[in-house]
Amino acid sequence: MGVDQYHEPPDELPAATRTFARMCASLTEEAEAIGWYEQRMAVEEDAGARAIMHDAQGEEFKHFSMDLEFLLRRTPRWREIARGVLFQDGDIVQHGEAAEATSAAGDVGGESAGPDGSGSLGIGGLRRSAP
Amino acid sequence: MNHLLRRLAPLTDANWKLIDDEVAARLTPALAARRVVDFSGPLDWTHSATNLGRTRPLKFADVDGVGALQRRVLPLVELRADFALSLGELRDHDRGALDPDLDQLDAAAYRMAVAENAAVVHGWREAAITGISEASPHEGAPLAATIDAYPGPVAQAAELLLRRGISGPYALLLGPDEYTRVIESAEHGGYLLLDHLGKILDGPIVWCPGVNGALVVSLRGGDYLFESGQDLAVGYERHDSDTVHLYIEESFSFVAATPEAAVWLRPDETGAQRSAKSRRRAS
CB-based contacts of B117: which residues, under 8 Å, 6+ apart? Predict the structure, then answer.
């Protein structure tokens, strides 16, 4: 169903939040596909078939990465925490805790208003194709 | 901190939430043009122009045998409405007061909505924005002098769009005076005019401050593009011991990709004059 990704009534959600929810759903689907290909390759004995699956999994890596980058651009706090965790050597949990603490300390005043943290009110588009 | 400088304001988080919520609540019902156009963005405050996909030839005299073209773009405009709030009122809100005086904020939000609607529907020559009504090649019938006759021009406009292959549903944008007349009117037999127009359009009838007359426009999508740089936001200007000066701001451009997807119905000037005279007599 097209509206399953919404947890609240879609008509009450701003357009930017609906887009955010759709992209989160896409991110989940890409992660699932990556996992499925990993399992198929683990049991497939035909080298030709494994090569095709390997190629297809690369597509899913790309899709997942694009979805994630879109969401991080729209969510400065998420981006800030991700920056402290991703592509870092060392203890992942420690990096995560430190990045979250740094982000929370900086989240003062009205700067983080709006769904994208830019101060925007998040009104966005209001068009509906039906009354 | 970005260009809105919100962290420099002497406001608590609760104050900012009050202000943002109130501005959004005032703006959303009045931003009628956004209900009928495609919205792209927000693309950030640094986004300065919309790609038109067009070029103009340039002479490049210094080197023979080299041609040159320059891309044409539509620069974004910035709209801003200033307002001031009493710091005393906001401190009282922090104490739990439920009725802070936000009149200036409300008026600024309304001005912003009017300006955006007018730019999209009627255009803004200095900003090179061609509005929906300006772009339309259709000659719509003027709105009738009597409210009972509104369905005629609206039905003709919907039929005109259908004949040109512009599918519905259609929305009807009405200026505040016209909207009030429609919702308070019943036709002969008691049938609500609002319901009758809704059946003709198969779409919404929208209160649109800033619109002169009425606009019948297709909601199929892909015909009109509103490109947002920074979407509506509240920023900080300055403060003194009593007052904080803030503003509502946005940047955008507007392009009518399918000019024939709407019909503008001019207001009936004689009817409006008669109405004004009768109001004066009544007062």
Answer: B30, B31, B32, B33, B208, B209, B210, B211
B28 vs A121: CA distance, rounded Å:
10
pLDDT for B194: 80
B124 touches chain A (CB under 8 A): no
Residue A108 is predicted with a pLDDT of: 44
- Say if the Cβ atoms of B4 and A119 lie within 8 Å: yes
CB contact under 8 A, B226 and A125: yes
A-B contacts at Cβ under 8 angstroms: 104
User: Which residue ranges form the domains of chain B, and what is each CATH number?
Assistant: 6-57+67-282 (3.30.2400.30)
Look at residue B263 and give its three-state secondary structure: strand
In total, chain B counts a number of residues equal to 283
Q: What is the tens place of the pLDDT at every residue in B160-215?
A: 999 999 998 999 999 988 888 888 777 666 577 788 888 888 889 999 999 998 99
Answer whether the bond into residue B42 is a cis peptide, omega within 30°: yes
Asked whether the ipTM of the predicted complex exceeds the cut of 0.90, the reply is: no
Interface check B168 vs A, CB under 8 A: no
Q: Encode pLDDT of B84-143 as tens digits.
A: 999 999 999 999 999 999 999 999 999 999 999 999 999 999 999 999 999 999 987 777
Distance from CA of A54 to the nearest CA of B (A): 35
Shortest distance, CA B69 to any CA of chain A (angstroms): 33
Q: Nearest C-alpha of chain A: how many angstroms from B33?
A: 9
